[in-house]
Amino acid sequence: MFNSLSDRLTATFKNLRGKGRLTEADIDGTAREIRRALLDADVAVPVVRAFVAQVKERALGLEVSESLNPGQQVVKIVNEELVGILGGETRRLNLAKNPPTVIMLAGLQGAGKTTLAGKLAKHLKAEGHTPLLVACDLQRPNAVKQLQINGERAGVPVYAPHPGVSSEFDTATGDPVSVARDGIAEAKAKLHDIVIVDTAGRLGVDTEMMNQAANIRAAINPDEVLFVIDAMIGQDAVNTALAFQEGVNFTGVVLSKLDGDARGGAALSVASITGKPVMFASTGENLEDFEIFHPDRMASRILD
Ligand code: GDP
Fold first, then answer.
1. ipTM above 0.90, yes or no
2. Contact at 8 Å (CB) between 228 and 200?
3. What is the CA radius of gyration of the chain?
4. Pairing of β 194-199 and β 101-106
5. For residues 117 and 105, is the Cβ–Cβ distance under 8 A?
6. Which residue ranges does the record assign to the SRP54-type proteins GTP-binding domain (predicted)?
7. Dihedrals φ, ψ of 278, to 5°?
8. pLDDT at residue 212 above 50?
9. Would the CB of 256 count as within 6 Å of ligand 1?
10. Is 174 labelled as part of a ligand binding site?
11. Buried b (16+ CB within 10 A) or exposed e, 259-296
């Protein structure tokens, strides 16, 4: 991911190297190149516009620096703006003062929520936490079973209405809000310090699905609501993210499928448009394919 964007930006900045002073024409040309590179990487148009305007304004106002040549200064500006868009400092999970910490997952069907649930559970367990997974995706017939498999692989228990016997589980009439509440009660009773609540998604955003997610959110008052988005989604990322922002007011973003050949635009667009930080990245189908997202490292990777 970001390979092509990275190559394009590197080539652009190469042209600035060795220049003693940047003219307005240099800056215009560079801004144009950055704009094209971002658009080709599938970054949403309004995000590109705001980003380039900001870089240009700062580049035009550059003071002569003793330590950096103008080309390096522009790279530094682009780097800082990228870090800013991606959420600034690495954002850690907000843990509840009174456990359990409740983490709700939201996103479209197929985004990678159930997979992420297992990954996050495994990661938190390795950090010494005692997570409980709660299966509230009652929409997709196999979701409860899939979460149970992931829970088993992560060595983390799963709360579902009929734990361990998912075939008996009536997905048609089950009430995900009650399951979420009961799951948290179970976590309290069994002294789990973190609860991860998997919820249902649809292939596209629809009112019923969003209402269900909003109802779960209202019932369990989570410490974090993580919006999981497939990095391959491209230009659709913005509308999907805005719908979830309005529906469940998520607190952080998880990018999934970063191992694919996504051009990276979704990452930059979603974080920028919603103002919410990217917190984790999913990079494959195995539970180990999981990373804490560091905006500064990602920006450096893009500008490498
Ligand atoms: P959900 O509907 O949001 O719960 O999505 P799932 O967790 O079921 O994921 C949908 C599909 O994408 C499954 O086949 C997963 O194995 C796959 N998947 C999830 N995360 C990743 C990832 O980071 N990389 C790749 N390559 N596949 C993923």
1. yes
2. no
3. 21
4. parallel
5. yes
6. 277-290
7. -80, 125
8. yes
9. yes
10. no
11. eeebbbbbbbbbbbbbebbbbbbbbeeebebbeebbbb
Q: pTM of the predicted model, to two decimals?
A: 0.91
Would you give the DSSP letter of residue 64?
A: P
User: Half-sphere exposure of 183 toward its Cβ, with a 13 Å CA cutoff?
Assistant: 34
Compute, in angstroms, the gap from residue 125 CA to the centroid of ligand 1.
21
Residue 163, pLDDT > 50, answer no
Is 202 annotated in a binding site? The answer is yes
* C-alpha count within 13 angstroms, C-beta hemisphere, residue 197: 30
Q: How would you label 128-167 residue by residue, b for 16+ Cβ within 10 Å and e otherwise?
A: ebbbbbbbbbbbbeebbbbbbebbeebebbbbbbeeeebe
List Cα–Cα distances, 11 to 109, 207, 234, 290, in angstroms.
Answer: 38, 45, 24, 31
Residue 98: predicted pLDDT: 95
φ and ψ at residue 54, rounded to 5 degrees: -65, -45
Name the residue with the closest Cα to ligand 1, atom 20. Answer: 112
pLDDT band, very low/low/confident/very high, at 166 (cuts 50, 70, 90): very low
State yes or no: 110 annotated in a binding site.
yes
Cα–Cα distance measured from residue 178 to residue 70, given in angstroms and rounded to the nearest whole number: 59
Query: Which residue's CA is the closest to the ligand 1 atom numbered 26?
Result: 284
- In 3-142, which ranges are continuous DSSP H helix? 3-14, 24-40, 45-60, 70-85, 113-126
Cβ proximity of 92 and 127 under 8 Å: no
Q: Is 199 in the pocket of ligand 1 (CB under 6 A)?
A: no
107 is in an annotated binding site: yes
Choosing from 104, 105, 114, 115 the residue with most ligand 1 atoms within 8 A of its CB, the one to mutate for a pocket test is 115
Q: What is the best residue among 285, 286, 289 to mutate for testing ligand 1's pocket, by most ligand atoms within 8 Å of CB?
A: 285
Angle at which helices 295-302 and 70-85 pack, to 10 degrees? 140
Q: Which helix (H) or strand (E) holds 196?
A: strand 194-199
Give yes or no for a cis peptide into 131 (omega within 30° of 0).
Answer: no
